[in-house]
Each structure stands twice: as C-alpha cells, then as structure tokens.
Design a protein that fits this description.
With 118 residues, the chain is α/β, with parallel strands linked by helices. It is 44% helix and 21% strand.
C-alpha cells in the first residue's frame, strides 16, 4: 500500500484529505505542521503532500529535506496563496507539483494517483 506523508496546518482540511486518500487505498500519516512532518522524514514514503505556508517549518523546506533523504520521492504542494504557488516552482525540488486551493478532494486524489503511478 503506497504511503503518503501529509502536512497541512488546517485541521479540517487535513482530516478531509487524510480520509479521502485512505478511502482511495493509501496509508496516510497526517501532520499538523512542517516540524511534525520533518520529524518522520526518515521513514519510507511514496509521496509528500504538503501545504506551503504553515507555522514553523514551511512546506518548501520540508520538501527540500525530504528530497535530500529520498531523491525519488514524489512531492505535491497545495496552497491557498497564489503568489506562493507561482514562486514555489523555482524553490521546490525538481518534479514537484503545485495545486492551488480551493481544490476539490476528488481532484487531489486523482493527482495523487497520477503522481504515484508515474
């Protein structure tokens, strides 16, 4: 079963995302912020799904650390800040994908499925 590390500071969205991905057949570890996600980066993951703007360590830094530990890790960002999303491409590890909020849960699950299948 593919393993997803989810970092999202919005409690409701984190819960919705985790449940939707679990129903789609993924094992999800949900973290409330970047610091919590960084603490488990040493485990094996198939995908990092992270918000960009969070208290403490931001999603870009979590992704950089994750990519350093796991060069083949797939990385997807979700953000409600369009300007941050546009800038994320230059700061994020190569091959990462940026989705802008608001986004439908089905769309996120479909994007996750595409990235894991790639």
């Amino acid at each position: 079963m593919p393993r997803i590390l989810l970092a999202e500071d919005d409690d409701s969205l984190r819960g919705f995302l985790a449940r939707a991905l679990e129903r789609a057949g993924y094992e999800v570890t949900a973290c409330a912020d970047g610091d919590e996600a960084a603490a488990v980066l040493d485990q094996e993951w198939d995908l990092l799904l992270t918000d960009i703007v969070m208290p403490g360590m931001d999603g870009i830094e979590v992704a950089r650390q994750a990519a350093a530990l796991h060069p083949d890790l797939r990385i997807m960002f979700i953000t409600g800040f369009a300007a941050v999303a546009l800038a994320a491409g230059s700061q994020a590890p190569a091959g990462s994908k940026v989705l802008s909020k608001p986004i439908h849960l089905r769309e996120i699950v479909s994007e996750v499925e595409r990235m894991i299948a790639a």
